[in-house]
Design a protein that fits this description.
The complex is a heterodimer of chains A (321) and B (283). Chain A has 321 residues and is of the alpha/beta class. Chain A has one domain (16-317): TIM Barrel (Alpha-Beta Barrel). Chain A has helices at 6-10, 16-24, 31-41, 48-60, 73-84, 106-113, 134-146, 158-162, 166-179, 202-214, 233-250, 265-278, 296-309, and strands spanning 62-65, 98-102, 119-124, 151-155, 189-193, 219-221, 255-257, 291-293. Chain A has an 8-stranded parallel β-sheet. In chain A, β3 (119-124), α7 (134-146) and β4 form a beta-alpha-beta unit. Chain A is globular. In chain B, 41% of the residues lie in helices and 18% in strands. Chain B has helices spanning 44-63, 66-81, 84-95, 99-117, 123-127, 160-170, 186-196, 212-220, 236-243, 265-270; strands spanning 25-29, 35-40, 129-130, 137-145, 148-152, 175-179, 205-208, 227-229, 249-251, 272-280. In chain B, strands 7-6-5-8-9 form a 5-stranded parallel β-sheet, with helices on both faces. Chain B has a 3-stranded antiparallel β-sheet with strand order 3-4-10. Classes of the chains: A alpha/beta (321), B alpha/beta (283). The interface between A and B is small, with 9 and 10 residues.
């Protein structure tokens, strides 16, 4: 199936009016139904070999993240070393998909990871607020791509979105997508952070998801991890429904990345259940689903050790981050 | 005529009163074999959660000044005194003791609690040491809490054995996960209601009710438990072998008396680590 052009999808020339008409024609979200479904999927019991598979998959789908003002090259390096050897007591342990850092740390991460196959993702566009001029946002992106970032995590302009200026949001995502172009003509993977905790309603989250997919995002990501409400299961489920329907209608596969607040292996497994039951098994793969997390890895490693040895493990047996 | 308001006896984990994760309960009978109450039957996952809660609480409790820990513990004794009637009634119902005997057990439990509370700021003065060394150093040994203690209270004592298991662990700054006597669990839960309203930080004491044999292997092999008290266990040889995996401190059955109105300093120091500091001094 040939991917449809944005104009074909919206049904007319892209203007703020046409975007508004298109986004507001999306069906409203059944809040109660969504939350009830999310809660019921969270009660599934995943044991033994399924659990082992889920734990390993959670690691493979992880963007191991450090996004602190106090990040140093050494801190990024130690995180990269952790990604290369997550569990020194078990060298069969899989590696995370990517390391997620600020743009100026990309070169340090690239150097530490070498050709290990672990991607480097950089947050860009005045992360986490997104409050900067478009020129600054694009320069921020180009800078990270030039430093070797494989993936760019951009934030949308929530102010523009909430004031109904969908065209501005759309144009910015498109411009950032262009800024992801490398000198050899290939593109860095673009993840669009909706910052769902600031979008107020489920309807808005659905609209923002569609807008990001229309503008050419490769992934839609829930949150920056820097606001009070981060990834939740209902929100992730809603976004998974959006990418599933997008694929059915337009034949384009878009990924989903919940980020922020996912700290336990138990939570991660709940997310995987929701992925399978909402979008389907095709999405249970690091190219289409990622966790943005930092402390999650240690909890998953402790659970892996418990499965392997039969004894409960403790924080003494994983690294201090 | 009014309907009885029967009490639900729950677990005590991290300062909260959850039901067992497994949803199970078991009936507890009085000394004549009549049904008395349903009590939560803890699973290995409750034990795991309790260890996490204990680990989270331990450093804060150990970091409190010894004087402060002593005050907190002494206040618990004051509050226990106010619940005398309830404890005595539960001891009598479970064991069939006379009013006088039950009161005696309760008195001994409070006396022992106070005895332990007094030790918080005296342990180092008595058990620590300034060591003579052949060199220009001050050499000082002090004792520090070992961390998270898992304990199995004596099976044959409703309250006193439990108090003499908990108190020696927490005076020095340890956090404890204690499994109460399986057939005499009610005073253990009433004790937690006192602890929950005291100044003791949530998670320092966690109480599980249920089958010792079911929970014990998981705590004995748990890599994040630093010491284990096996007094209330049946399969203690096997458990000690499991505990050796991460070099847990082990208190064996019969190591310390549990039914007196005083404890033993050795019991307290058995759940502590010695730290020796060398400090250079001028000539």
């Amino acid at each position: 199936m040939q991917p449809h052009s944005p104009e074909a999808i919206v049904g007319s020339r892209i203007t703020n009016q046409s975007l508004k008409r298109w986004l507001h024609s999306l069906p409203g979200v059944d809040k109660v139904g969504l939350e009830a479904r999310a809660a019921s999927l969270g009660t599934r019991s995943i044991k033994t070999s399924s659990k082992a598979w889920a734990l390993d998959s959670a690691i493979k789908m992880m963007d191991l993240t450090t996004l602190e003002g106090m990040d140093t090259p050494e801190r990024v390096k130690s995180l990269c070393l952790k990604a290369l050897t997550p569990d020194p007591t078990d060298l069969d342990c899989p590696r995370p998909a990517a390391i997620c850092v600020y743009g100026d740390m990309v070169k340090h991460a690239k150097k530490a990871l070498g050709n290990s196959g672990i991607y480097v993702a950089a947050v860009a566009t005045a992360f986490p607020s997104g409050r900067a001029s478009v020129a600054v946002k694009l320069l921020d992106t180009k800078d990270a791509v030039k430093a070797g970032a494989d993936e760019i995590d951009m934030v949308i302009d929530r102010g523009a979105f909430l004031s109904g200026n969908y065209l501005e949001v759309y144009k910015q995502i498109q411009a950032v997508k262009e800024a992801c172009k490398r000198s050899d003509g290939s593109y860095a993977h673009l993840k669009v952070i909706l910052e769902t905790g600031e979008l107020q309603t489920y309807d808005n989250i659905r609209r923002a998801s569609y807008l990001a997919m229309l503008a050419g995002g490769d992934f839609i990501k829930t949150s920056t991890g820097k606001v009070t409400v981060n990834a939740t299961i209902p929100i992730t489920m809603l976004m998974l429904q959006a990418v599933r329907d997008w694929y059915d209608e337009h034949g384009v596969l878009i990924g989903v990345k919940p980020a922020g607040g996912i700290r336990t292996a138990k939570d991660a497994i709940k997310y995987l259940v929701v992925v399978k039951e909402t979008a389907g098994e095709q999405w249970l793969n690091p190219d289409l689903f990622r966790f943005g997390a930092s402390s999650l890895l240690n909890d998953v490693l402790m659970q892996r050790q418990k499965l392997k040895t039969g004894n409960y493990s403790g924080p003494d047996y994983v690294s201090v981050d | 005529m009014r309907l009885d308001v029967r009490k639900t006896y729950k677990l005590f984990i991290g300062g909260k009163f959850p039901r067992s994760e497994s949803g199970r309960v078991y009936p507890v009978a009085d000394s004549k074999g009549e049904f008395l109450a349903n009590v939560a039957m803890a699973s290995r996952k409750d034990a795991r959660d309790a260890v996490v809660a204990a680990r989270a609480a331990q450093s804060g409790w150990a970091g409190a000044t010894a004087y402060n820990r002593g005050q907190v513990l002494y206040r618990i004794a004051e509050m226990l005194e106010g619940r005398r009637e309830q404890f005595v009634a539960e001891i009598r119902a479970l064991t069939g003791k006379s009013d006088r005997q039950a009161n005696q057990e309760f008195d001994a439990a409070i006396d022992s609690w106070v005895w332990h509370a007094g030790w918080t700021d005296k342990i180092d003065a008595v058990a620590g040491n300034m060591n003579p060394v052949a060199g220009p150093f001050f050499n000082i040994s002090t004792l520090q809490a070992t961390g998270v203690v898992a304990a199995f209270a004596p099976q044959d004592s409703a309250l006193l054995g439990l108090v003499n298991t908990i108190a020696p662990a927490i005076v020095s700054g340890n956090a404890i996960v204690v499994v109460s006597s399986e057939s005499l669990p009610l005073p253990a839960i009433t004790l937690t209601e006192v602890l929950a309203t005291s100044d003791l930080p949530g998670g320092v004491v966690n109480v599980l009710t249920g089958k010792e044999a079911e929970i014990a292997p998981w705590l004995a092999s748990h890599q994040d438990v630093n010491a284990i008290d096996l007094v209330g266990t049946s399969n203690f040889v096997e458990l000690e072998i499991q505990a050796a995996q991460n070099l847990k401190r082990v208190i064996r059955k019969g190591d310390f008396a549990r039914l007196g109105s005083k404890g033993s300093l050795n019991h307290i120091t058995n759940l502590m680590e010695v730290k020796t500091v060398w400090h250079p001094k001028g000539h």
